[in-house]
TrEMBL record:
This is Uncharacterized protein. It comes from the Bacteria.
């Protein structure tokens, strides 16, 4: 048993699933009186999410939307990467009161049109996800693992809406994912997200390190499949107003998931490990580089505790890099 798809968001949901490259698992058209903000969450490959984000930015620049939409990445209850299309300005509290139901409905129709263009540029079948071979027919092991993962997701068909039963592992998985989405939405500091969206974070990180090499956690010199671009307190980076603490990482998505899994285990199974609650999100910078953001925003009284947590998270990052 599952809830139906909200009428306004249905065209966009169907368009996403029709591509054969995405599988939606939660959505909402927005309900201002609850409040519940409009979004569609889905599974898919990182490369396809990057391409969709690029198309949404182009459509926004062409004036096709009333609101600026973005693709963001998170990790579900099993720390598997998933993505969500949401309104970028919703993370700025002052923008939420300006939402209009009619404009959101028109935007969902425009979003469906953008996704239809996505489909037209593909060969349009599951084979694109699960069987494409490169240059003479050889595929590496990672490509095979990704293909099997996506094949298993698509085999279950599109499912949208929060299920009303906990009777199977699949439903528990979806519920955990939805809870993770709602826990993260809107809490990423808006100035930080704005910088990510308008800068090439890899170039900016190199510049910040060049002008001020202060690195109290000794992270920015570490190179590998997962790299720390910067964090609150590192030289060259602007400090956010208030009590925000944050890390920025670039690299492979599976290593990002491993770091997030370690953080979540500490928060839920080892309650004494971290002093405050941290969140995780993946955002795309202006060059479409996926950037993992670990962040905390809380009361002033917890500011020192968050600083202690940063040293612990830094140690976890170094352990993961050493093992890879």
């Amino acid at each position: 048993m599952r809830q139906g798809i909200d009428p306004a968001v249905r065209p966009f949901v169907l368009a996403l699933n029709k591509t054969g490259r995405f599988r939606t698992f939660a959505s909402c058209q927005g309900h201002p009186l609850r409040p519940s903000w409009p979004y569609v969450a889905f599974y898919g490959a990182l490369e396809d999410a990057q391409r969709l984000e690029r198309m949404l930015r182009r459509a926004w620049a062409q004036g096709r939307f009333n609101y600026e939409w973005e693709v963001s990445g998170h990790f579900d209850g099993y720390c598997r990467p998933s993505f969500m299309v949401q309104i970028f300005d919703l993370q700025n509290d002052s923008s939420r009161t300006s939402l209009r139901v009619g404009k959101i409905r028109n935007d969902f129709l425009a979003l469906a049109g953008v996704v239809e263009q996505f489909q037209e540029r593909n060969e349009g079948s599951e084979a694109n996800l699960i069987g494409k071979e490169k240059n003479g027919g050889s595929r590496d092991a990672k490509t095979d693992r990704d293909a099997q993962f996506l094949q298993a997701l698509l085999a279950n068909g599109p499912r949208t809406g929060a299920p009303a039963s906990w009777t199977s592992g699949r439903f528990r998985d979806m519920f955990s994912a939805i809870f993770a989405w709602h826990g993260c939405r809107g809490s990423l500091p808006y100035p930080l997200q704005a910088d990510i969206r308008t800068e090439n974070l890899l170039d900016l990180s190199r510049w910040c390190r060049f002008v001020d090499g202060y690195d109290p956690l000794n992270l920015r010199s570490v190179e590998g499949r997962l790299c720390c671009l910067g964090y609150e307190g590192a030289g060259g980076w602007l400090s956010l107003r208030g009590n925000a603490r944050w890390f920025l990482f670039s690299g492979e998505l599976d290593l990002m998931a491993r770091l997030v899994a370690r953080m979540r285990r500490a928060q839920h199974a080892e309650p004494q490990a971290l002093q405050v609650h941290w969140e995780a999100s993946v955002r795309f910078d202006v060059a479409m580089n996926p950037i993992l953001v670990l962040y905390w925003v809380g009361d002033r009284g917890c500011h020192e505790d968050a600083g202690t947590d940063m040293a612990i998270i830094a140690r976890w990052f170094l352990d993961i890099v050493d093992k890879t």
